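S.,

As promised, the adenosine-5'-diphosphate run. Input:
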Amino acid sequence: MLTVETARTWLSLFIEKLEKNENYLNSLDESIGDGDHGANMLRGANELKVNLTGESSVLLPDLFKLAGMSFIQKTGGAAGLLYGQAFLQMAQSLQEGNDLLDILTSGLEGIQKVGQTELGDKTLVDVWVPVMEDIRNNRLTLDRINEHVISTKDFQAKKGRAAYVSEQLNGHIDPGAASCGYFFEAMLEAGVYDE
Ligand code: ADP
Ligand code: MG
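Predicted complex:
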């Protein structure tokens, strides 16, 4: 269930995974972009970490607003705006209730508003959408998240820097899809979805 406690754990685990995998995310972005996705995400994660420590008693919507502002202000690039807007729209949705699918739907709307992205464009949307589908069908696992991330290997990039070198990209995982995989792994591990 999504509560202040599980949401804090979710965000903290996401931060940890971004810290641990900075170089890996950079290397994925080297193959199809400019090699900075790990570094970009880490800047937002570090900012969020500081903000989370400073705010010990915030409500659920404020927690996600904090995340949104951290990624928008510090991550920069395409990913900063995409994750930032996703978090902000999740925060907005949390004003009305804490149903996980409703919140993730709002997050996806945020991403698509900023990115004009459809399924299959080789972006984080290609993880976000099938994860929502798995939740709907009660079958989300760490393995399935990983499969969704890996599936982006075979997609042709239509958005972002990767679209400029599209033909060379087959066989490469999309870096944004990989960071999004960490986001959903963290969600599972935090018990947001389980209970
Ligand atoms: P930048 O491309 O500015 O260097 P990052 O490297 O941090 O930013 O992020 C790249 C990731 O952002 C891509 O792997 C992709 O998943 C995602 N992305 C880029 N453009 C879009 C878009 N228009 N819609 C959705 N996701 C996008
Ligand atoms: Mg990049």
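Residues 29, 33-34, 36-37, 77 surround magnesium ion (ligand 2) (CB under 6 Å). The mean pLDDT is 93.

- D.
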